[in-house]
Amino acid sequence: MNLRIALTVISLAGLLVACKSKKTNELLMNKKWRVYDVQIPPESPISNTQYIQAEDLKRTYYKDAYYQFLDNNVFVATIAGKADTGKYYILSNGAMISVTAKNGDRRVENLVTITKLTEDNFDMKVTSTDFQFILCTKREK
To answer: Which residue of 3, 27, 70, 91 could cross-link 96, Cys pair, CB 3.0 to 4.6 Å?
Structure first.
């Protein structure tokens, strides 16, 4: 009897995880997410260098940047008019995204944490060489 209850609870938990990941994927898919701001995570210690890097990234590298999540787990990053493709996987119950090379090789993996996701806004925490930043994106219509 206890085994049946335990298996039911485990099955329901797995279903909830799958539903959350599916919802995340549905919100991300087939939209153009344009970067409009680069912020410092609120929990980061105050650093002038990090602040300067965030402003510099916003004005330069991410000035004309957008991301797309397409069918078959295809990820497209377009920076300054140059597109690069890879694969993406929703992880951690829809809280993280793994972005890999086209062949799915995880030796070239970037992990991002979703901090906000709605129909029109997608914010993600990314790690650069020295610091973490939040890329704030809006759905381009």
So the answer is: 91
